[in-house]
Predict the 3D structure of the following.
Amino acid sequence: MNSTSSSPVNAIAAELGGLDPAYAPTPLLNLPALAERLGVAQVLAKDEGRRMLGSFKSLGGTYAGLRALARASRMQVADLLAARPKGQPTLVCASDGNHGLAVAAAARFAGARPRVPARGRAERARAPHRESGCRDRVGAGHLRQCS
């Protein structure tokens, strides 16, 4: 592709940016004291903590979840988000971390129900899933045992 404005990355960024301003490009922070201590010219850190779910990992799960729901509804993502139609499928993801939170957020944005099974060791991770409207089932072992 010759034009960056029509790249898939820019299309994804535009769709996610329409959801929440926190999906904008995150800033690079200059850390001169750390650079001096390490003996290097410059240290830059990307501040992903400003994102809605506090992680860059929220981008892929949210986008994939919205695309899946839009495809199932035979709508564009923007139209799906505006209409939030009834009768959408449940969005399912087996995760006890950031990706599960992102998928649950996608379902919430679109008015669908999320289900994110998590293993028993994910007690801390389940609270944000529930806050996102997720109905999780927790098993003690492998995720296939969660029901």
Notes: Strands lie at 28-30, 44-46, 91-92, 114-115, 118-119, 138-139. The longest helix spans residues 57-73.
